[in-house]
Write a structure and sequence with these properties.
By secondary structure, the protein is mainly β. Helix content is 0%, strand content 49%. It is built from no helices and 11 strands. Strand 7 and strand 8 form a beta hairpin. The radius of gyration is 13 Å and the shape is globular.
Length: 123
């Protein structure tokens, strides 16, 4: 199993950024996928997740209404669209594969992780 996150960078407050996570080594369409983030000195926290076909999505309260999560099962890729970003969104963002029959919100619910991509929100 491999997860490769990309798309991070420096963005100004109020701007947008789109993260991608390319998956391989497993049947992608069988799994929920999620995004987490970890700011310096803080623990890793849930950002968003979505179901096998993208029909169900879940968001942390801090990003609800600003971020969107989607997937392309034909390309084995999950996306995180970040809009109206804030300085507090600065973090390393990780994509992860959720375990079967798990909840969505805890790191222990996910069994494989990408390497992370850094997002810096700064003017």
């Amino acid at each position: 199993v491999q997860l490769q996150a990309s798309g991070g960078g420096v963005v100004q407050p109020g701007g947008s950024l789109r993260l991608s996570c390319a998956a391989s080594g497993f049947r992608f369409s069988d799994y929920f996928m999620g995004w987490f983030r970890q700011a310096p000195g803080q623990s890793r926290e849930f950002v968003a997740s979505l179901s096998w076909n993208g029909g169900a999505t879940y968001f942390a309260q801090s990003v609800k209404g600003r971020f969107a999560i989607s997937r392309d099962n034909a390309k084995n890729t999950v996306f995180l669209q970040m809009n109206n970003v804030k300085t507090e969104d600065t973090a390393v963002y990780y994509c992860a594969r959720r375990r079967s029959r798990a909840t969505n919100y805890n790191t222990a619910d996910y069994d494989f992780w990408g390497q992370g991509t850094l997002v810096t929100v700064s003017s």
